[in-house]
Amino acid sequence: MQSSRPFTDAGMAAMAWPTASGLPPRAVVLGAAGICVVLTAALSMLELGRGGFLASLGRLFEYVGNIIATPDWEYAPTVASKMLETVEMAFLGTALAVVMSLPLGLLAARNSAPHPAVSHTIRAIMTTIRSLPELMWALFFVTAVGLGPLPGVAAIALVSIGYLGKFLAEAIEAVPDAAVEGVVVHGANRMQVRFYALMPQAWPDFIAVTFYVFEHNVRAATVLGIVGAGGIGYDMTMAMRLFRYDRLALILLAIYLAVTILDRLSDRIRARVI
Known about the structure:
By secondary structure, the chain is mainly alpha-helical. The protein has 2 domains: 9-67; 74-273, MetI-like (MetI-like fold, Orthogonal Bundle), CATH 1.10.3720. It is built from 11 helices and no strands.
């Protein structure tokens, strides 16, 4: 006769931890307790008690409900024009970054730099560039050159140089020594090694990262307008401040469609190129 117990001995054995006692290790218990303590402390520091958290959720749902209001379709031509400007800013900034990151990546890679000091210097410069987000660089360029798309393009290009140069340097350093030795034995000099051994091996990874950076730059360009650096960000900010939820819904829809379409296109291009 089969046992009526909800858990059989075999089931309990399958659920037990792989320890001598069958209980969780002390490290797991202490880690779980530590996470609970940290979350509790964070909630108290942010003054997010149960009542405040539920009230915040209510306001969030109300705000989302207002956004899903009927879009202002008469505003669609303006949104389309601003969204096109945003994509153009991202494309131009990414293109400039690709051109600049190629020599910087070669100089930053330890197996391609003419001297270790050059590699360390270039890496330090790219780290400094990446330390600030696009919005901070856009503020700097708006102060320097004024309002418009130019500060946005400059900010996107500068930050993208820091990322693309770093990724290219790491891809070059990951090239196996056999690929380099195969070119060296045929009498290739250092410049020929860079262009016929290192770059062909690193090129597919660099292309994949470039498309990802371009997609990121489209999203980044949508908020640069907040500081007057062009794009659709200014219109989005004004719609939020004036409680024009009908326009805000249209702007968010345009951003979603643009990012989704570019994501699908980049996937197809990567599949053909790489």
